[in-house]
Amino acid sequence: MANPARYWREIPQRYRLEAARCTSCGEISYPPRLACRKCRSRKFESVVLADEGKILTYTITRVGPSQLADLTPYAVGVVELEGGVRIMAQIADCDFEELAIGQRVRLEFRKIQEDGQAGILCYGHKCVPV
């Protein structure tokens, strides 16, 4: 489980898909960075990412970590959003036999996991077929 303080700092990215666009070269970073990876500028503006894209690659996890054991099997993929930003997310509400590279997906805001003893609910984005 992520550190709760870190998790709360990441809320703009997790809840609103906020990224940072370098004002010097236009490079978009998700999650936001302190310095642009292309030009090393430290000046950014907030942008909201598209909520649709395509699957670039994926895998099916049949034996997962203990905190996700009740979710297995599950699919995780790298998705290229419209605009070119790539993210990794769970692919939900799909038949694994029908998953395909290039398949269109939409990001939905959902519960990711729950820290059992502390009761902390972690939310984020999952991909679902369009």
Explain what this protein looks like in three dimensions.
The protein is mainly β. Helices cover 9% and strands 45% of the residues. The protein has 2 helices and 8 strands. Strands 6-5-4-7-8 form a 5-stranded antiparallel β-sheet, with no helix packed on it. It has a 3-stranded antiparallel β-sheet with strand order 2-1-3. The chain is globular, with a radius of gyration of 16 Å. The model has no long low-confidence stretch (mean pLDDT 87).
Q: What is the CATH architecture term of the largest domain?
A: Beta Barrel
The total count of strands amounts to: 8
Number of helices: 2
Radius of gyration: 16 Å
Task: Compile the SSE list and pairings.
Layout: H1 4-9, H2 11-16, E1 18-22, E2 28-29, E3 44-48, E4 52-61, E5 74-81, E6 86-91, E7 104-115, E8 120-129
Antiparallel strand pairs: 1-2, 1-3, 4-5, 4-7, 5-6, 7-8
List keywords for this structure.
2 helices; 3-stranded antiparallel beta sheet; mainly beta; 130 residues; 2 domains; 5-stranded antiparallel beta sheet
